[in-house]
Amino acid sequence: MPDCRTMEATELRIAILSGKGGTGKTLVAVNLAAAAGSSYMDCDVEEPNGHLFLKPAWSQTETVTVKVPVVDRTRCTGCRRCVDFCRYGALAYTSAGLMILPKNCHSCGGCILVCPEQALTERERTIGTVQKGFSAGVHCHSGILEIGEPSGVPIIHHLLKSMGDLPNPVFLDCSPGSSCLVMESIRDVDYCVLVAEPTLFGLHNLEMVWELVRLFKKPCGVVLNKVLPGENLGETFCQERGITILAQIPFHRDLGLLTSQGKIAVKEASEYKSLFSCLLTILSQEVHCETVAYS
Length: 295
Ligand code: SF4
Ligand code: SF4
Fold this sequence. Notes:
Shape: elongated
Helix content: 25-40%
Number of strands: 11
Largest sheet: 9 strands, mixed
Distance between the termini: 14 Å
Strand order of the largest sheet: 3-6-7-2-8-1-9-10-11
Structural class: alpha/beta
Number of helices: 11
Bound molecules: iron/sulfur cluster
CATH topology of the largest domain: Rossmann fold
Strand content: 25-35%
CATH class of the largest domain: Alpha Beta
Number of domains: 2
């Protein structure tokens, strides 16, 4: 029987998820990264907020672009083959000629291939940025989708490409819910931490995100946040299904205050340092045991 506590993984990528916003997902991700002194990746590209706590000094900003078609009107004969080909409604032919709706385009490149006149070429369109920095022992990468852009998936791809440059473990702060942004974020992770709050709504969202990680066959455990004395619906849910409860974070005014002030709890109070260090240890054992079980 291997000793889980002594095993080392060459790469350790841990996604932090929640079924909805406001459950404490960023709180858990930021404090785990700070307790481990490793890496934090903000994949919540529509509303990244981990930097409000970590306050990194950004050393690099990279532009994220996607390819969209551009038409040469002197070549276009109006045959409409490109319009018929596009499944995303990104092309239309009007009395003014071929219209391109860049935000509908999925950059498949198909229209360029089917055009018999070589009237279509590609240009780069900026949809957001990735920032890279460092703060008090934590390497921090953060994706930011520009306002009005329909999909942050290319930004997630850009972020994940830099995963190998970061010290382990890397904690990925995912978007809330179970959208394609979350699916892209967890695709290659080793373990998922599901953060839940003890309300009926919280239970529904926990179930939703648990179903998602099961679909992806990812090992997972639950952190119950905002725990009050008495019955906890999330706890019952986990016990009935044999889901590991990694930690319970009590509902406490002090933690709410630290969070509202943009402070990192493990750096401010010994009880939270102890709580997250303990969570880190349990998580490490869980991940390494799962790695052995899956290998
Ligand atoms: S690249 Fe693909 S998605 Fe974009 S306009 Fe052309 S066919 Fe449509
Ligand atoms: S396929 Fe080419 S020639 Fe035909 S409408 Fe589209 S851009 Fe114009």
